[in-house]
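User: I'm curious what two different proteins look like when written out as structure tokens. Can you demonstrate?

Assistant: Sure. I'll show them one after the other, since each token string lines up with its own sequence. Here's the first protein:
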Amino acid sequence: MIKDKNVGYKWKFEYISASEFGTDVISGDVDLVGFATSGCTYEEVGTTGVGGWTFPLSGDTVRYMMTRPSHWDIDNDIFVRVIYATGSTTSADTITWKVLHSRNAFGAAPAAPTTELDTLIAQDTLTGAAAASEVRASPAGKIDASTIVDTSDFLVFDVELDAFAAGLTESKQMLGLEFAYVPKLTEFPQQAPDLQTADPWS
């Protein structure tokens, strides 16, 4: 039998595509709009053939709901980052994403989350030879261990464009939301102290 203390834990990743966020078809058009705020539209990222949410203004938000994954070990930190693209080719342009979340029991409506990440997503600066529509990943934010509890039946996440450089007038598009977690292997507490504070994408 393999004992828990002998398990070499590694991060697992879960990716939620932008297309899975709450959407509605605009009457008489093929575009989609987000339920959370009407300003966001789901459309092609440049000419890549890939779809994403376009955020015209800071404060615009799109929303996602999921039942609590049984394979997440909620006794360990859950890391979060936003996968995105912009039309900018200016390497000094900055962009900041915000993720809010709520934990709910069945019988409640999936209202707007008000809880920010315990470690916020830091401002990202476009670096190197920036190219329009290049896929980028924000810095990691974090939900602290045990913030999500066993009585949480479903989780709601809002992805918000928090701020961006005044010169970043080009498109700003969210392609998806990515989580990093310790896999839950047993019904009992697991020992993974070496993973508690590490950024899995650093």
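Here's a second, unrelated protein for contrast:
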Amino acid sequence: MTSIRLTSLSHAAGCGCKLGSNDLSEVLRHLPAIQDANVLVDAATRDDAAVYRLSADRALVVTVDFFTPIVDDPAAWGAIAAANALSDVYAMGGRPLLALNLVGWPRGIVPFEVLGEVLRGAAEITRQAGCLMLGGHSIDDPEPKFGLAVVGEVHPDRMFTNAAARPGDRLVLTKPLGTGILTTALKRNLRDEAGLAAAVASMTALNDGAARAAATAGVRCATDVTGFGLLGHLGNILAASGVGARIEAARLPVLDGALELAAGGCVPGGTQRNLEAAPAAWAPELTAAERFICTDAQTSGGLLLAVAPGRLAALLSGLEAEGTLAAAVVGEILPQANGLSVVRGAEQ
């Protein structure tokens, strides 16, 4: 196969190229108000996918996600993009049913055999998920892009949403943070592909086990941590649920090397914008690197779950049984008046 560095064709690393939180608010206000009672979830709560009720016991979960290359291995890029898109269905408590490919490809610049490898990587992940890949659409594009539109299903009474967090809930994270920083290091020649192995393993890991464990434990509030970072996606939960939260930075699971890279200035643009937009009260002793970890623009991150204290042990046991990459209790939901704060640890 022709050797080509895919990340050199991308103008942005990771999911940091997506609209910022303030930009998104400006865009979403132009969407029409939804009057259909069968629409259970739309863009108003910034949930991970739309949910449309078909019957008393069945609803469709619909989502779409795509992005430019964040690694140079085409099959790995395809696998990451597929896992990332499927994650939105799991974040709603759903099960993926079918997917369509979305492709932007620089005809005449990158051989189509490379695209074949991207599709192969994506197909392996959809196969693992039991999700049918039924086709898709492609356009000629000077910058390569790939992702999926996914349709899933969920029982309307058992779906997860941003709006179900309650004061006292514990916050649990199921994958380590730092993929945005590490993939930016690859683009800046500060890491090679071998040094990105743990990040790629995390980004290609499905969130199906985390979703199963959460459903079994009775969780009703969840999101996946992607382009807006941990605090950005937590902020969506706080706004939709009318609550506050405290995050303990010392408890956050972090990929090896991410803190050191951030301390050295290797920070993606999306992460910096997330930090600027984060409405958080930061403990003064937190380093800049710790703050960047809290706002790092993730690709195919873990689920952030809000669970009642009485169900926490069952959730952690279920996550352990499912073999999730992390099962870290990273904070707590508070009454709205407390806002969002980030401290170093419990002693604070």
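A detail about the second structure: Confidence is low (pLDDT under 50) at residues 13-17.
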